Amino acid sequence: MAQYNITVDDEILKGLFSGDKGMSQLLEQVLNQVLHAQASEQLHAEPYERSDDRQGYRNGTRPHPLTTRVGALTLRVPRLRNGNFFTELFARYQRSEQALLLTLVEMVIQGVSTRKITAITEELCVAEFSKSTVSDLCKRLDPIVEAWNGRNLREKRYPFVLVDVIMLKIREDGRVRSRTAMIATGVNEEGYREILGIMLGDSESEASWSEFFTWLKSRDLRGVDIVVSDSHAGLVKALQSQFQGATWQRCQTHFMRNFLDATPKSLHDELYGKVRAILDAPDVLTARLLMDQVVSDDNEKAPKAIQILENGFDDITAVLSLPERYRKRLRTTNGMERMNEEIRRRDRVIRIYPNRASVLRLIGALLMEMEEKWQSGHKYLDMADYFIWREEQKKQAKEDSKITKIS
């Protein structure tokens, strides 16, 4: 790390104890000296210094407003005659914010942005970005995101996997096309959440989901026991072929929406309460008894809704076979919905991505940061009871197999 010699005016030091602006003035002076020193490093020479190693010449400075926690600063950013001055000082954005900025700049360069987008990039960059500059910045960020998204997963097992999809618009071949971003998260054997990967697809077809799951397996995803998702088109068929033996838990929140859409409005409150009781049942047997009662009482009043309930019963109650402490977190994809909200916050700014690479860069960088927070926080689930339950299930299966053979 570079070391800089910083001098501070006596008046500014006195101001630290006599006014509210003392800290901001001190920070402004220090940062301006850092910028001056960084310019000297890049040029290999101080101002007016004669040196055989000199790489260029200064051309004055430009003001750069910077808002900080201690107040508004005005920095004097050096100008260089034969090149752009670069400083890590302004890399105050996390990877996801850098990716967002790069995507915005790409849109401006390709001439597909609105005046609003141009204004945003000018506000953030305070400089013009050339295609070569953007390319260089992408070369720094893209390999980091690509390495994370393609990392090997063999070190851990992932008993619980949640998958979801988000629709995006991407400009391809001069046209705006709708594409899917398929995302998977997992709960590993230690109880921590991880984002397993993101892949772009052309649709929600079985082929797209199969390609996604095959890719995850090629990275050594293993130990999958429960998969939670909405009933996306093609997803269930892909799961059945790619994760044979795993149980599918249909998202109860999405199911309830589908159920109520088919329910007469006059019966919404009544049937919602009844189905909620089924989902909150202590075990599958009780849930089935409650469902049978609902079918008996309401089949004639809401035949379409009851048909949906009967057809989906096994999928929405799969989680009831697990120990109770795991059911709340695995009954829905609500956790992924919150993740999607963060993606949508940035997606609303971009609206139409300039290319596929920008999607993976922006969303991938954001997902990396989310996962870092998950890994540094508390465990998502305590997995001890799960593994005890799992062993009991295996023993019971062996006993049932012996009984079957004898009979």
UniProtKB/TrEMBL annotation:
| Protein's recorded name | Mutator family transposase
Function, please?
Required for the transposition of the insertion element.
Q: Which GO terms describe its biological process?
A: DNA transposition
User: In the UniProt record, does the keyword DNA-binding occur?
Assistant: yes
Q: Which GO terms describe its molecular function?
A: DNA binding; transposase activity
User: What InterPro entries does the annotation carry?
Assistant: Transposase_mutator
Does the UniProt entry include the keyword Cytoplasm?
A: no
> Which Pfam families is this protein grouped with?
Transposase_mut
- Where is the segment annotated Disordered? 42-64
Q: Which family does it belong to?
A: Belongs to the transposase mutator family.
Annotated organism of origin:
Sulfoacidibacillus ferrooxidans
Indicate, by first and last residue, each region the UniProt record lists as having compositional bias (Basic and acidic residues).
43-56
What keywords tag this UniProt record? DNA recombination, DNA-binding, Transposable element, Transposition
